[in-house]
């Protein structure tokens, strides 16, 4: 599914903001995730310890460039991540705005070009903009990661029509909703629309019980995908009886 | 949970409109439901055959009064159902409007009074109206089944604020969303709000693959409940970083 | 339009909660309202003074039974209002729940029966429930006042599908959205759906500048009605060009 | 307000798709618009006749580059428009996608740079993307025209949170919602959020009665602005009484 790698789970999990490494590991386990994102930003001994912890999860690592605001920062971070984590996968974030953490489409496309040319397999964090998506594919990306809402906001799908249009336009390209999902029902909704996977962090890490919430998300995402494949009933404007009425006259 | 009966699954399944009895049984099995609703309206040999089929499911039966438009019809139907199905459980529907199939609150409360007095354990299909709910409890009901949207419409939760208010008001009373749910994400949303269970029919029966859809709903409902218990993150108006940024200076 | 009285304005204004009588009069004037509601609850000298103030507005008075929780309270209040205000019009409120101030449908219908039989022209504050609406018409009401949302909440139309269904069902009956409207856009939305008028109080009284807000609501309600009559364009799922493209080849 | 030009009306009107020039002129008049957009695409004698018609409206003309898909097309069209219409104002559209007619942010910013450098006063049709907006300001634009929804769709504000964020970020920059508005209530909603103006075409041109619809939009936009200035009440989660209850005891 992603760059030739087939996976069972459609949930990817971020590893920041957990109360403790133990809780993080529990949450990963409970979620069923096979891919976890990881930031390079934990340096020195703490960073090494953290990477040891992650290796226990037996998940595939997807390093990210979280916190980078320029093409240069993102490219440099990606190169270092490749060395440190031994993978050409990179979740490319180039933040354009400090409050909303929205991607900078210009720097993002430029960084994607550079990194794809260097052999990276890029997972770009982008908006629902079709044109930006097309430029990312032209740059060599084979996956797109549109946001649902601003990172950490828990607002769910802020522009569902935009995502629906994106799905219709990019047939055959894996689309992963990345950022803004706050509840399992929102993740299921995205899956029911035919989006391919969900990347979560805050909603799990900041839950009262992260492992239980991770399990709930894992289940809801599977449910949304199954529903998409099972063919949802069409929505109707007016009601119609689900129980056919016959034989009533005899009863009264 | 319901009239002293504890259950594992929070999904109840209707048994109308399936392509075939075999598909119905598959769907029940896949859903994990422990309660299925059944209409008395299948008379004679066909009815007996159908009841045999349902008995294979090993679910507890919840007979309904679907299609009844008056107190008298509903009460008569309930009495016959008690005899035929050997249970004092009754899902009480008194339809007030032929197009929307909304309950008639006046006839509903009256029928509930009569039936509770006769020892029935009544599951009333009602709107999100608090006062109607209170009257139903006064009548002796120990469960309420507010609609999500008109029966068979698949619109989901048409008035989520109304259901939220209902949840806040009726602490300790099991609330089952009955009617209008079209997708697993909608069922999960109801569960995340703290509602207790979901009754479905059309969304499963009319899916392209009913058994797969039943499985999806079962999972989504479980996910929604787990999320409710695990403590959802609060929704935020503005974005905030999920990955704390530090150590960036060294990288560039 | 209402009990044989034709009006130009489709806005009715409540008179509670204003910073001062002068501001109230200004708001009434700016709104263009021809009907104002008034509570009997201001007793003694203060009440008389207040009624003098209202008489300056030259609006038709619609006394209400705000704060009544039983049929008996409401009926008694209506009778007193008829004497004090010299009108058989009565806005009938029978509150069923102290927090949401939702109407009690049972007591409401009962009070409507009593009052209609006594020659009152009743404007019942009700929910969007079709059956309750029908009972009110049977009782003799010739107008229905469904809520938009709980009184004073400013949530707008909490259940637009419910109101749309109500409009479709009660052709020829004036429907006035009463309660819950917080912004002119919400009032316009109701009018675009073909509802007949809006009753407001809190959104005007609690605005920073009540008179300016009253003017804004008056205009928005007129706009919504004009739009309904002018025939709104259908909503489209996908975009289509508003400017036909031709002659482009020559330009490049 | 726009490039040093102060205006009374906050509605701009497109001139395409009307049943006849007479209806167009009526709609302009009824709307109160002081700015109308016009496409260069009507060539030859028909174009000259059309321009004569528009000059009767006494509105300020805002030529557009509708239908352009590349920077070069848009720049060439803008230059021709300046000559033909004798104005340095240009509504810059560079379409990136044939179905949704969404702007191409890359070509848009490039064209804006070229045109601003040539002394044009550019009104760019853009998305709600903050970074694209910033680039357009850097290019020299002093106005932004974010879309509400795809052109001609009548969906209203598809991403209200995105527009709200845009408003918060670009203090002091006029923001005009351009495209997607289908009903006056939607236009009023945008104005209540503090956006500065609305550009409409299809919703008026395709109304059953365009002039009446134009009047409705004019009024709704004024209402929305007045409401913004008058200070909207805060939305409340739970209901609270608008009529203070006192003196009740005496009545019963």
Structural class of chain A: alpha/beta
Mean pLDDT of chain A: 90
Number of strands of chain A: 8
Oligomer: homotetramer
User: Radius of gyration of chain A in whole Å, from Cα?
Assistant: 20 Å
Spatial strand order of the main sheet of chain A: 3-2-1-8-7
Residues in helix, % of chain A: 40-55%
* Cα shape of chain A: globular
> Which chain pair has the greatest contact?
A-B, 83 and 83 residues
Low-confidence stretches of chain A: 245-252
Continuous helix count of chain A: 9
Q: What is the straight-line distance between the termini of chain A?
A: 60 Å
Largest sheet of chain A: 5 strands, parallel
One letter per element, helices H and strands E, the order of chain A comes to: EHEHEHEHEHEHEHEHH
Fraction of residues in β-strands of chain A:
5-15%
Supply the key terms.
alpha/beta; five-stranded parallel beta sheet; 252 residues; homotetramer
Outline the structure in words.
4 copies of one chain form a homotetramer. Chain A is α/β, with parallel strands linked by helices and 252 residues long. Helix content of chain A is 42%, strand content 13%. Chain A contains 9 helices and 8 strands. Chain A has helices at 21-31, 44-56, 71-85, 105-117, 130-139, 160-169, 184-192, 202-205, 210-230; strands at 11-13, 35-39, 60-64, 89-92, 121-126, 145-146, 176-178, 197-200. In chain A, the strands form 2 sheets. Chain A has a 5-stranded parallel sheet. In chain A, helix 7 (184-192) links the parallel strand 7 (176-178) and strand 8. In chain A, helix 1 (21-31) runs parallel beside helix 9 (210-230), helix 4 (105-117) runs parallel beside helix 5 and helix 7 (184-192) runs parallel beside helix 9. The relative contact order of chain A is 0.14. Mean pLDDT of chain A is 90; it is low at 245-252. The interface between A and B is large, with 83 and 83 residues.
